Every structure is written in structure tokens, then in C-alpha cells.
Amino acid sequence: LLGGIILAVAAMPILSFLRQRFNMSDKWGAILITGLALIIFIVPAYLLIHSLGIEFSIFVSEMNSTKFGAFIENLKNLPIINNALYDFGKKISADSSFIFKEHATQIESVGMTILAFIGSLGIGLVHFFASVIIGGLFLAHSKISSDLAHKIFVRVADKNGEEFSHIAERTIQNVTKGIIGVAFIESVLAAFGFFMAGVPLAGVWTIICLLLSIVQIGIVPLSIPIVIYMFYTGSSVIALLLGIWLILIYLLEHLMKPILLGKGAPVPMPIIFIGVLGGFIAGGFIGMFLGAVLFSIAYKLFLVWLENDVQKVADQEDVEHKE
Q1: CA distances, 259 to each of 24, 150, 177, 254 (Å)
Q2: End-to-end Cα distance, the chain
Q3: What's the whole-model pTM score?
Q4: Per-residue model confidence as pLDDT tens digits over 33-79
Q5: Percentages (nearest 5) of helix, strand, coil residues in the chain
Q6: Is 317 exposed, middle or buried (0-12, 13-18, 19+ CB in 10 A)?
Q7: Rg of the chain over CA atoms, in angstroms?
Q8: Which of 176, 202, 178, 173 is nearest to 189 (CA)?
Q9: Other C-beta atoms within 10 Å of 167: how many?
Q10: How far apart are CA 251 and CA 193, in angstroms?
Q11: How far apart are CA 47 and CA 42, in angstroms?
């Protein structure tokens, strides 16, 4: 429900544009927006899950092939760690059962963590799908939904309710388009590069890129080791092209954010970071998005309480939104 409300508020400018430019009714506008959102959501999700399944089956098959032995030979004399990975790989290729005997507890812990993450991801995708549908219903009845939200804010905050509603709306739109939107575009572009270059476990790196982008760390910490790995194990030309593509994505990110956010992020980066981590822990994949938005709204409302001037914070939101 919260996800649907957030998506509906974030999509209101698009609905207003369709209403004014094409004289489209709220219901048809909501159907169009919901349909496009589902396509944008379902296609990448399907490709991601499909690729993870294929990559896992390939990994299992190659564990028993000569390719795994060739891969181990490439681990000789690595910088810093020297032959530690090489010796470990040789032991696995000679007798893989030893790893289960000596590290059973650690393997069980890692396995449970991975299964929990996959389960959370799957449930999160279902929740997100439901949020899109609910958001479409809110958009189809935007006037009634807007009046209801206004009455709730007025009921809760009395005379300041209208300003609180205004602040919440602006914060949702700023965070979704400037933080979540940019992170989504960045991770999709990075995924395209990973799949085209044949990077192993490209689906996993795509999810990590999305997480890193939302918490404002960016894809650079992940991109550098991937490009180095591709240089070391694959074609230098492909690795070079992948590196150039990731650099272009990094530059595009810094071009999109000023355009979408005006003066920058609507709230300080630590606020978004805490919201994402707390949301992910509390609510999984969908909680990651909700946490960033809801904690950002809470921060804005805290500023209102601190300043003791609702109108001042609301006016500041208007200036940032217009810029």
C-alpha cells in the first residue's frame, strides 16, 4: 500500500502532462502509465532471473570440466594474495569434498544467507508488482485520492496539514526521480554492458549496482575489479570497451542528477543510506525503496519541527523542485 502511494505520487506529474497535452482522462492515463511501468518492471526482472538460472547451471557444469582447471591456472601469482587462491582452487579440483568437511558451518551460514536474500528478492518483486497495480488504482482516482490524503494530513497536523502534505509530495517526487530513477537507469545500462561483454554472474552484479547506486556510492567500486578481471581472463578489447562503457555510465549519472534534482539530492546522503539499509533489513527488496523515501520524508518533517516554521520548509521545497 505504501509502495502504491509513493509510486502514485511520483507519477502524478506524468499524469498531469498526459491530461494537459493529450486531453487524456485520469483512468486512461493511469492505464497507460501502469502498463508501461509493468513492462519496464517485468522485462528486466525476467531477464535477471533467467540469467541467474543459466549462469548457475553453467557454473555447476564448468566445475566438472577442463575449463575450471584452466581458470585455476590463471590464478597463479596474483598481486598481494600471491598463490593463496591458486592453492585453494587446486585442492577443490583434486577433492571437492574437503571444503564441506572443513568448512561445513561457514558454508551452511553463507548458504542460508544467500537463500534468505533470494527469498527476500522474490517476495520484494511480488510486492513491487502489487505496488504498481495499487499505484495505478490511485492514479485512476487521483482527485479522490488527493482529497483523502489532504484530509488525513489536516486531521493529523491540524492547520499545518496542508504544508506537511506539500512537503511529503515534493520529497517523494524528488527522491524517486533523482535517487531511485537514476539508480534504476544506471543499473540497467551497466547490466547491458555486463551481458554484452559476457561477464560471469552479470545478474548478481546488476543487483549490486542497483544497491550501490541507491545508497549514493555508485558503480565505480564494483566496476574496477570487474574490468580488471575481464582484462586478466578475457579479451583485452572487450575489457577496454566495457571499461569505456562504464565510464560513460558514471559520467551520465553525474549529468542526470543535477538535471533531475536541481541543487542536488533533496536530503543528505547519510539519510538516504540509512533509509535504504533500514528498509532492506525491515522489508527486503521493496523496503529498500520505501526506506529511502519514508526516511527522507521523516527528515523533512523533522526539519519542520526543528525550524518551527512549516511554511519556510515548504517554500524551500518549492524552490528546489522548480530548479
Answers
A1: 27, 29, 10, 9
A2: 31
A3: 0.68
A4: 999 988 877 777 777 777 777 777 776 666 555 555 666 666 666 66
A5: 85, 0, 10
A6: buried
A7: 23
A8: 202
A9: 23
A10: 15
A11: 9
